[in-house]
Structures are given as C-alpha cells and as structure tokens.
Queue: 2 jobs
Job 1
Amino acid sequence: MKGFAILACLVSGACWAQSPADFQPATTNVWGAEYPRVDRLGSVQIRIKAPDATKVRLNFWSGPKVDLAKQADGFWIATVGPLVPGLHYYTVIVDGAEVSDPSSQAFFGGGKYASAVEVPEAGSTYYLPGDVPHGQVREVWYHSKVTASWRHALVYLPSDYDQSSRTRYPVLYLQHGAGEDETGWIRQGHANFILDNLIAAHQAKPMIMVMAYGYARRAGAPPVDFMGKPLGSPEALVAMQDMASVFEADMTQALIPFIDTTFRTLPDRDHRAMAGLSMGGMQTFQVTFNHLDLFSYIGGFSGASSFVLGDRKFDPKTDLHGALADPKVFASKVHLLWLGVGTTEPERIRGGLLRLHASFDAAGIKHVFYESPGTDHEWQTWRRDLRDFVPRLF
Amino acid sequence: MKGFAILACLVSGACWAQSPADFQPATTNVWGAEYPRVDRLGSVQIRIKAPDATKVRLNFWSGPKVDLAKQADGFWIATVGPLVPGLHYYTVIVDGAEVSDPSSQAFFGGGKYASAVEVPEAGSTYYLPGDVPHGQVREVWYHSKVTASWRHALVYLPSDYDQSSRTRYPVLYLQHGAGEDETGWIRQGHANFILDNLIAAHQAKPMIMVMAYGYARRAGAPPVDFMGKPLGSPEALVAMQDMASVFEADMTQALIPFIDTTFRTLPDRDHRAMAGLSMGGMQTFQVTFNHLDLFSYIGGFSGASSFVLGDRKFDPKTDLHGALADPKVFASKVHLLWLGVGTTEPERIRGGLLRLHASFDAAGIKHVFYESPGTDHEWQTWRRDLRDFVPRLF
C-alpha cells in the first residue's frame, strides 16, 4: 500500500485531461496492444473488454483494488498512479473471476501467469539491454534423483564465455520468490541485462548465474500446496520450509554437480555465491548455512531465515547452527553476508529484516544492509539489490 | 471442428460417472493446480472460479464453444472430449471477457498468453524429455539495424556442442505461426526434446536450431496490426506479407550473420534449412525462394506461400521467381522441398496445401508431402511434421 500512492481516478474526466498526449503503451504489453499505457509521471491506464460483466476490478498486488468504469464500447477502463518505477504485478477481477489481462505479457507470479506493467525509472538504464556485449541465457534440463524427474533451470553465461575456451568462472545461484519460478529473474528482473551492464562497466567480475526452479518434492511424495495456505501463516511457513529442504537436497546433490560438470566453473566455496528474494532468501539461508563447505557469499533480498517472519529474536549463539557465534571466525570464512529490503515493504517483512540487521549489528557480525528507497516487495527492489550485491562478489 | 469430437457433457452427471477415478491434472497446469484434468481417453475437465458471473464459456480454439455449469462453491466446470492427443489452446469467456485460465500455464498464441491443455498420445514419447543427452536452448539477443532494436531468439544446440570444441554444425531456422512467438517451438512444440530424441537414436544429424521472433517493423515505421484484421482476410494477408518482408531483411542481414559469427555453424547453403508453421511456412517460402543462395532445405508446415490461402492456382513457370520452372534444375539445387498438413485442418488451409501438392506433382517437382492423421491446425501436427522433416536434413 505504502509507496503506491494511487490517485485512483476512474477515467473519463480529470486524469485524461492531466496529460492526455503523454500516455505510451507499456513495454510489458504483447505485440501491438495499446493498453496498458503509462505516462511520464508513472500513471497507468488499464483497459479490459468485458461487454457483459457487471463489475470489473483492478488488483495491483502492491496497492488497493480499484473499480474500472464501463464505457459504451464494452471496454472497462481505469487510471491509477502515479506508481513508483518498476514492474507491478496485477490481475483483473471480472465478476469475481481473478484473471490476467490479455493485453499484457504474462509473468509467472503468485502461482499463476499474472499481468504486469513496467513503469520506467527516469535515468535508470542498468536493467535495460545496453549497447554492450550480451551474455546468453541457457535453458538446461538436469535429472534429479531427489525428485526423480527432469528439472529445468536457466543459466546466464557472461558474453566472453565462448571466446575464452579455457577460462573458468565463479557461480552465483539466484532464486525467485514464492509463487514465481526460474524464469522470474530474467523476465521480470532483467538479471541478465544487469550483469551485462555491470560486467561491461568493469563493476562486476564475469560470472555464471544459475536460476533454478525453487519447488521440489521427493519422488513419490504428495504435492505440497504451500500456495493454498494463507501467505505468511505458520502453516505456509512450515510447508515452505519442508519444500526448501527437498530443494536443498536437489540443489546440492543434483544441480550443483550438474552445473560444475556442464560449465567451466570454479567449483569451490570461494567462487560460489547464493542469493534469493523473499522465499528465495529463506532458501538461501537454509542451503548456505547447511553447506558452508560449498558457499562463501550469501544474500537475502527481502527474505532471509524463516524467523525473519516470526516474532522470535535471532540468537547468533544457537541459530543457523551457531555459525555466527564467533563473528571473527564467521567473517574469515564467509566473504559476504548481505541483507536488503525496500523502505515501503510490508511491516511484516521489513520489520523482520530490520530486526535481523539490528541483531547482526548488536552481535558484531559483519554484513551489508541495503535499503531500496521508496520501493515495495516488488521487482524494482530486487533489481537494485542485485545491482548492489553482484559487484561485491568474487 | 473436425477431429475435435466434443461430447460436451456439462458436468455433474454422465461424464464424471464414466471414468471418475481416471482424471489426472494436466502436465500443462501450473504447480499444484488440480484442474484442468485429463483422463485416459482424452476427456478434459476445466474448472474456473467466477462466483459472481452469469455466464462462463469455454473456447477450445479447435472446437466449438461450450457453456460451463455453475456449482454451489462458485466454481464453473465443464467436461469436453475425448480430444485428439496434443496441445490444445483454449480461453474462457467470463461475462464477455475472453481471458486465460489461471490454473493453466500460459502459452503465447493468438497474440496473447493463452491457456492450453496437453492430452497425452498413448505410446508417443518422441516429444517428451527422454533418458538421453539433452541439448541446451540458449536465449540470445542480437541487434538489428533493420528494426533498430535488440531482438530475442532461441537457439537449440545439440548435446555434444560443448564437448567437441571444433565441430561445426548445420543450422535449421524454424519459425512459429501467426499470433505465436519465438518461444512456441520449445514450450508448445517441445522441438528440443524431438531433436534430442532423434539425434540420440541416430535418426537425425546433430544440428543447431534457431527460433526467431517472426514479427518485425522497420525502424521508425508504425506498428502493423495484422492480428487485428480478420484471420485469412486479404487485408490480414497483405499485412502479414509486408511484415514478412521486414522479417526477411532482419533475418538475412542481422540474424543469420549473428548466428554464423556466434556459433560454430557450417555457414553455407548446403548446411542451412528453413521451415515454419502456418505464417512461418509462408515466411519460409518468402525467405528461402528470395535467397536460394542461402538455403537448400525448405519446409512448409500447414503453410507455404501466401497463395496457399488464395484461390489462384500455383504456376511453377512464374511463381516463386520461376525457381521451379525446371524441376531438374530445382532438384539439383534444393535438396528438400517438404509440405505437411493435418487431415482435419480447416478446408481453407488443407485445400491450399493439397492444391499446391497437386501442382507440384503435375509439374514433376520433387517434394515430400506428409499428412498428419486426425490432427488439426494445432501443435500435434507440427510436432509430427518436425519429426518427419528433421531426419531428411543434411
């Protein structure tokens, strides 16, 4: 809600008059679609065809629901904003059916293919395709004995990977959030362009980046319906942790060996990092602190250990296997411990990260704490996180 | 319509009783979604939550629209089929709003992210991930002076590409249909698995496969709204051809040079093929016959030259620059001319392909004509096309 600042003026009158010539189709639209449209200030117009509907609502996930107004031609329309820059998920609710907008590209979020509108950030080009060498993103399939299935992952390779046939690279494992999938960091996050630009500017080392599918269930086990449970509820958290432990097994027993045999990696802990957003941050803490023999760089983007979401205070002496009990020993072993959160994220998440940050400070644990100004539990926060995190690696 | 054979029994009664224990969630569902469900015979159940709607219809694109029945819990449900095996696009129409089903994965088709349900084909594993080496699919970005933009393409590399650092490979350019995009052949078609399996069985040579985004407009030109025109209308055809000529320029001036400098290709006409489905078949004929210096293998899957859709009879003496005027000269130059169509495709398309096939026969033009039994203008036809086409290459 905060940071979203909806002016929620239902079309026809005031909002159109404000800057009528300025609206442009969003870059997140499908080919040829004129709506959604965005103006220079970040106001957004959404239009849906639903001639026989009695009520159509717009549901921006980081803002309030807004009624659309019916026009004579069977289209429903609303103008919201200005919205903060970034990619904003939304759905439309047509007579009670929550669906995506056919004019928008579909992005996997919230456990389904949702719509999203990109509001440009004036002057920010770090996540756009620049006139620099572009790394490729490879789709790979690896077989996992843990899940007894073929699993799909995306792998970013720096642009010089194919030119230098002997060079070996460090690896960043980067995880999506709950309800998203392995495509999120590329399609929503533009992580490949962020790395392209940082590497071209010599602000980051060339590296391999692996984005895996963060859901896993053991062969023969029933599906885990963690998305069906109330987000943030104890039941959802337990289900998420159960799944994270299967993912941990898949990652350490199947994915990492596959990556290290398939690509020219530097296959040791000094050259292996893991980070993730939201649920992916939780998974990162679980995987890395259970396997400090494998990782030496750790990042939590709007998510860290599961106790971030609980009331319990972090205890460095016992939590995370006591790895943080001696800050000097920890700092000599783990090269980077990084936390980030947006300043307008929900209190439940922001409070948890702030408390963890304070606990780390109080215990003298070396870490980086980054706050993304004005952004919510959304992709603009995580793009900025990645931009800050990656230059500190390797 | 033909080949779809809808039993269209609206739930609750007869259909459920028929084989109630047999329904399984479709492989095309999002994680954890129990609907759509498919039974062994290919019957499909679709369920949508729309508590306040007054009418919900199901629109399988290769079949009739079917009303869903409202249940007490706010869900609407219908059972259709049995459907022929393959991937069937569909949308749902909620009080006049045509939208995708949140329980299905989204596949780009019809100019939007549509839903689809996969009906397995008993005994067919050629398009499934097998226990064989898997080629990678790379996402690449190339800059095009034709469009003055960064363009995205997918590139399949055979599984041994990285092991044999000197081997060079032939290249198949494979295009999607109108309303689809460069992701279609992988996500809907499983083209990578088809090649993996054929190559592992030594039925096809290891090759590179390039799937490009088939829409293009010249830098500064207005967008071409070919999807807004009635499909198959003269206006749509003209718009499609205009766009194809820009795509032709992009492909020959930007894409092919990019591929040949980026990957270890055999960069000559003897080792370069092009095929495409529907609109992609039309583009294939346009590009290859304008550039026989670049291509020697040509495939039209449910689409070929634009006159397939018109009434005009093909004239080998003058059409396609007269390249087919002398069948012997043509056969010595072009190693493969391949046409395919499903037996239950709409008359407009099927008739056109049959007429072209007859014209080729009458003129003594060597070619392959393949008919996919029982399948419509849908992906199962094109998967079979690819399986027949690829072993004949290189």
Job 2
Amino acid sequence: MRIPLKRHSVVPLYQQIEAYLRQGILSGSLAANTRLPASRQLARDLGVNRITVENAYAVLETDGLIYSRMGSGTYVLSPDPLLVIPKDQPGATWPLWQQGLELRSSKPRSSVEIKKASRHPELISFASGIGDAHLFPAEDFRKVLQTVMRRDGIAALDYGEPNGHAPLRETITHILASQGLQTRAENVLVTAGSQQALSLVSQLLLKPGDVIMVESPTYSGALELFRALGFKVVAVPVDRQGMQVEALEKLLQQHHPKLIYTIPTFHNPTGTCLSTSRRIELIVLADRYNIPILEDDFVGDLRYEGRSQPALKALDPGGRVIYVSTFSKILMPGLRVGFLVAEGPIYQRLVDFKRVNDLATSTLIQRALEVYVTVGRYQSYLRRSCQTFRKRRDTMLSAMQRYLPAGIDFDPPHGGLFIWLQLLENLSSTKLLSFAWEEGVDFSPGNGFFIDQTGGDHWLRLNFVAQSPDQIEEGIKRLGRALKRLMAAP
Amino acid sequence: MRIPLKRHSVVPLYQQIEAYLRQGILSGSLAANTRLPASRQLARDLGVNRITVENAYAVLETDGLIYSRMGSGTYVLSPDPLLVIPKDQPGATWPLWQQGLELRSSKPRSSVEIKKASRHPELISFASGIGDAHLFPAEDFRKVLQTVMRRDGIAALDYGEPNGHAPLRETITHILASQGLQTRAENVLVTAGSQQALSLVSQLLLKPGDVIMVESPTYSGALELFRALGFKVVAVPVDRQGMQVEALEKLLQQHHPKLIYTIPTFHNPTGTCLSTSRRIELIVLADRYNIPILEDDFVGDLRYEGRSQPALKALDPGGRVIYVSTFSKILMPGLRVGFLVAEGPIYQRLVDFKRVNDLATSTLIQRALEVYVTVGRYQSYLRRSCQTFRKRRDTMLSAMQRYLPAGIDFDPPHGGLFIWLQLLENLSSTKLLSFAWEEGVDFSPGNGFFIDQTGGDHWLRLNFVAQSPDQIEEGIKRLGRALKRLMAAP
C-alpha cells in the first residue's frame, strides 16, 4: 500500500498514516471488508518502524474503523453513518489550465439529466438512434460466448490482430457481398462501433481548422465529433433525393474540404436515399476535386420497400470511398463492434492509427460475433427485422394520421429507423419537447442535426423501430396531445 | 441486395447482374451457401423485369456457380478452384490524396512480419509488454460472463453510461484505495485500455504542433501515439531515480509543453522509480508552470521489494494530475478495459470526448469485470502475481549471471515487468536481434523507446514475467549465445 508521508513534518508518522486511512474509510473510498496490509508489511512498504504502523492501527481500531482477526488480518469496518464524510467536491481551486477548459466547454446540460428531472413515470421514447433492445438475441449470444470461451480459452482474451479477428473480417466480407457490396478481408478494419471508424478516418485526413463537408441536416454524433476535433463543418443541403449534389461543386471550389461525409442510404435524420444519378455524380465530383468520401451506411440493409441503391463504395473505381458500417443497429449496440472498408495506402494508415489509439477492440467480443453472425443467420435476422420494422413504421404512420393535428409534413421513409417531421413554421420542436415530456413521450428535436445547432427548430425526428406497436400507438397519441397544447399556447 | 447497374449501357442488364454475382463468387467474397434473393425479390430490389434476373441466374447455374433448391431458394456453390480469381490487389491507380498518404507513411515493416520470416520453430519471447497469458483466470471469467448474461440479459448489451458502468467505477475506487490512492467514482472514467486514456487526454490538451514532455526513454506505444497525433515530443532524461526533475525547469521554460507524460513507478522500459523528493518537486514545478501531468501507473502495484512510493496522484493538491491505469497487465489484456482518474472541469470534457470517439466501452465486459474484480479477489490475485513475478525476476537475473558474457550493465528492478539492459557501447541491439531470432529468442531493442527512435541502440528490454521459469532459463541461454555471436562478428 502506497501512502504519501511527509517525513520532515511536525505531524508524527503514525498520525499521518492514521489520518490517511481514516480519510479513506470515512469517505467510502476504502470499502468495508478491505483487508489492510499486515503491520510488518506496511512498515516495510513505507520504510517506517513497525510500531508506527501498529500505533496507527490501534487508534483506528479504538475508533471502530477497523478490526483485527487473529491469524487472518486487519479489515476495514463500515463506518458509523454519522461520521461519513460527504462526497462533495472538495473546495479545490483548479489550476489555471483547468479554468481555461471550463470556459471553452459550452456543452448544454445533457438531455438525459433534463429528462430525469421531468419525471414522467413511463416515458415512451422515440429519441434513440438504435433498434429495439427487446429484439436482441441475448440468450443466443450468451451461449455463443460460452462456446467461444470453452473453445479458445486464454486466446479469446489476448490482444489479437490490430485490424481485427481475421475470421470475423472474412465473415464481414461475406455479409457485405450477400447485400451487394464486394470487398476483401484485407480491406476490412474492425472498430469500436462505427463511431470510432468516423473518428479514425476524419482524424487521419483532417487537422483542426480543416474543412469537412456534410449533409445538412446530418447525424448529430458525427457533428459533435467533428466539432470536438476542431474541424470547420460546411453543409450541403438535403432534399427528397438526398444530398443536393448540384450544389456541391460550387461548395468544393469555395471551401476546399478535406473530406466529404455522407449517409447516402436511409439518411439520418431525414430517411431519404440519394438517387442513383446523384451517387454517380458525387463520385465523379469527389474524384475531379481529389476529395475522399466517407460513406456511413449505418442501416443500408434495412429496406422495407422501393428499389435498392448501390452503396457508393460499390461504385468506387478504387480507393475513393471509405465505407463505414456496424452491427449495432440491428444486433447489440453494447457490443461496440463496427467496421470500415478501405483500399489503398490509407488502409494501413488507419490500422496503425487505430492501434495507437486503443491497441485493439475486444477479441472476446469479436470471436463471439464471428461465431454468432454467419451469413445465413444474418440474412434471416435481417429479413425478420425488416418485417418487424416495416409493420412498426406503418403503425406509426397510421397513428400519426389519427392523432396528430393537420399541418404536419413528412415523407414516409422506405427504410431505416427514422421519420423526419416538419412542424408549421411558427412552431418550435424545442418547446414541443417540454410538453411532450409532461405527456410522457420523447423525441429528438431537429436542431441537434444542424451544423450550428440552429435552423432545425421546426423539425423533429421519431425513431419508429425502438418501441412495440402498442407503445407506438400510445406515444403518438401523447405527441398529438403535446402538439395541441403547443399550438394552443400563447 | 444492392447491385450497381448501368441502365443506359450497351451491356444488357441481365449480363450486368450475372457479371457482378460471378465476380463476387469467383473472388470468394460471396461465400458458398449464401442464399441469393428470390428472382422476384431481386427484380423488385433492382427495379428490373423478373425475366432479367432469371436469365442472369440461369447463366450462373449453367456455369455451376449457383444452384436452386425447389421451395428453398437459390444458393452460391463453391467455385471450381481453377476459376477462382486471385485475391491480389487490383491494379488500381489510387487517387492523388491517397498517394500523398503513402509518401507520409514512413512506418518500417512491422516486427511481427519480420519475426514470422525468421521462422524459429519455438521462439521464446521476452518482447511483450504484458503478463503471462497462462496465468489469466480464463475459466473463472467464463463463469462470470455467464452469471452476468443470465442476470442482466439485454441490459448487459446496451450502451451503458458514457463514463463507465457505475458499480465498476465504484470498485475501481475501492481497489485504488486498497493500494493507497483515494478517489471517488465520479472522478473515474472507464476507457478501452489505458492506451485510449492516453489518447483522449493528450488529444484534449494538445493540438498538432504542441509540445509534450516525456521521459527518455519511455513507453514506445505512447511515443507512437504522440507522433501519430502530430505533437512535438521533448524528452527529459531518466537516471536511477527516474526522471531527472532537476533538468525539467529549464526545459519547461524553453519548450512550453502543454502536458508532461510520466511513468513514475516501475518505469517502462527502465524499471526505475521516481524518488519521493523528485515526485514532490515535479508536482511543484508543474503547478508553477501551469502544466498538467499525465501519470501512467501501468504496474504501480507490482512491487517485489523496497519501499513504496505514493502515486503522483496521491500528492496532487487537486486537479493537477490525470492518473491512468489498467487491468490489462495483471488480468486479461484482450478485455481492453483501462481507466483514468481526473478532477475538475477536465473530467467532463474527457467523458464527452470519449463519447464522440466511440460512444462507450463494451458494457458486457465492464459488467463482467465488476462481478469478477472484487477488492478481496484483486488483493489476493495481486499477492500471487507478486510472488510469481518476483521468482521469475530472480530466475532471469541468475540466468543472466550464468549465461551472459561480461560487460552487460543493468539494475535489478524492484517491481514491474522489465529489465533494461545496456550492452557495451560498440554493440547494437538491433544487430543482436537478428542473431537472437536465429537462436530462438526475442526481445525489444532499445531504439523504439527513444523519441527519434535512435540513441538507444546499445539498450534492450527484457520482459521477465511473461515466460515460465524453464523458458526464462532457456531464453537467456539463447540470448547469451546470440550475444557471443554478435561480439565475435566482424
């Protein structure tokens, strides 16, 4: 045990030891039943006389903070609740460099905290970015973990290859091919969710102050990332055919972005798909202006109707598009396994950069996923998900027709997770949210999806896959009530 | 299934579909037994006539690439090996931005590849930075995973809290307190290994071009990270009492670093401990010059003899030191769970930055660790590890006396994982490595631990904990042979 001692202090050493342990016990950081070192051992550790330690222990024992069991050792007792030191932040003065950080931090109070404060007993949430946790095959996965731990033993707990478990990378190529995107395991990099993939790619290609081009609106988590990394974010507007590629060339000439980030299929938050002609034009333009494309295909497979569009990556003549996807949306988000596909020199650079950032992604989870996610199982899981999600979308659309007042505008999405709703121009989704929480329903207000976190205030995003049909029905009913209250408000 | 089609091409659509699937099957990306969509479905997906798809399938079936089973569907066959397209990189011309990346990449061929090439059937490695995988309690951990999956179900697979699973953070504070460092769960951030903690802290506090101060030599993975992030790395030399803090003030005035990165206890690679007076002086200096300290305490608990030193964090008057540690070194590296401790405004900034980088670290693993790593279990595991590792250190030291030629210099380490060896001035550890591989032993040559990857060529690092005593004996014998060959070489 390492205890800081002031050897030239007027406070005797035994009192310093006693005070340090007392502080730990009363503040709760030294937990009840923690075994303290034998006095002989602690004396050796600290380079003090054994009597010094024994004196310190004796005082603590007299005060009922520790107890000795003959032949077994000395243990911490639960302190008398009256004595416990409150866990308040000590009245420390932070060093100057910390005060600077405080000023720069302009993060609003997180919506989680606010929601907790609103305290509706049974909030129905359409705010999430993921699927329905109740559909996740947790029990099957438990068995797979067992199989893997029994089969691989300690190998399952080793660092593994820096670009990902090879058989999992192979499986990923087979799944992608079964969905129409052909690639090779040597071009796949397994990441800690697709969020890490976005982080690695953008950091490798941009430095702070560089320009990144995104759709407006776009995935809020990407915007937060790009802001945190100090990039200048420039937006291309989105219409019903996705990114307005016609407007892109002028923006490229004007801003010289280092990267184009796009969600071409079932876009987050709007749900639109980039048309085929725009896909081709986007690749041509990026090539002409020598700009890499980062394609976020987070739910490209979740199509419920309409004609499919090839991934941008499938149109890539070679090394132009970096493709990012994930298992999180249809399987288990907590596994934190995503992947990217890239060719050319950037691939090895990404592998190296991933390695210096976190060495590797849990091999155990990778091995388990590899066993669990066969192509056949993925295909049938996807089929079932599409059926379930299509029904939920239809439930939500019909509930919207019944319960929402007139003047709401939206396009029914052909796939993905989200409905993107436009309120009347004079209505604010931020204000709607307070009413909604009171009624017991939650959604994502539009502002978070825009680069300056403004300009989207009459928009909102609803996740239609995360709740059961009954909950969807009830949630939209509540949203209708909230909207009527908002429209009636002064 | 998404297949890119050129609708105005002279190539008929059925041939485009057929060619795309054929390419996938022959290149192996479309795996055998993958089910293809029903022709009606694929026709709908692609917006083509059903006959078009049927024609494509018919050609593929005639060529023995797919087969249909009545009522079940159409499946991919294993292609005739003679037809398989080699997996070579296509002769693509990379876009200009990729060529730029290629030029910037100066990474030497990885040592893993070289080692594979050396092909000794039973290489004994003293090169690793971790413990002995065979001591990892894989079977116990398997049972714990089961318990957690049964107990928590889908909750174990959710995103979890952005700063880490609360009970695990509580456990971490109890373990730290049992080792003499008192902190609170609200100041702990769980990360993907300590490597991610280093990455988050340094990125938050520095931008490319900023100066970071490190010990010379220091942990190679930190150097690689700082280089990859574009920081200017300035070194403070290390002697037998650790960082030469006396030299620090002048360097601080000269270089204005934004962060001091240090491994004060059982330093990597030298194994030294910073003396108490230097610890205090370091804190005072950092405070005077308003510079944060990043303390990497990767094996602070693994002490085999001598007096303990308090962690720098334990001497921190508040918010000066950011403390990083990990379970990887004594438990299971593949779990990828580390943590940091920080107070003040930087804590929330780090939580936010972690969230935008990868959302969260696998909750399943965090929950399992929380159940597995009780304070008592950690303490007894630590006790056993110290006993085992002390014996292995002694085995290595005595083998070195017997098998290594005279003129080798080193200090027997009092803890940690490494012995840092100095060869005679005219001998190169890089050259020694070739002989060592031929003899069947591996180590880490010194250059990788120095900021310019030079200046350490007569140093080498041996890990004394990762091999069994028999292997240590044999490995050092081989190293002795390699050294004699090197000394005899012209």
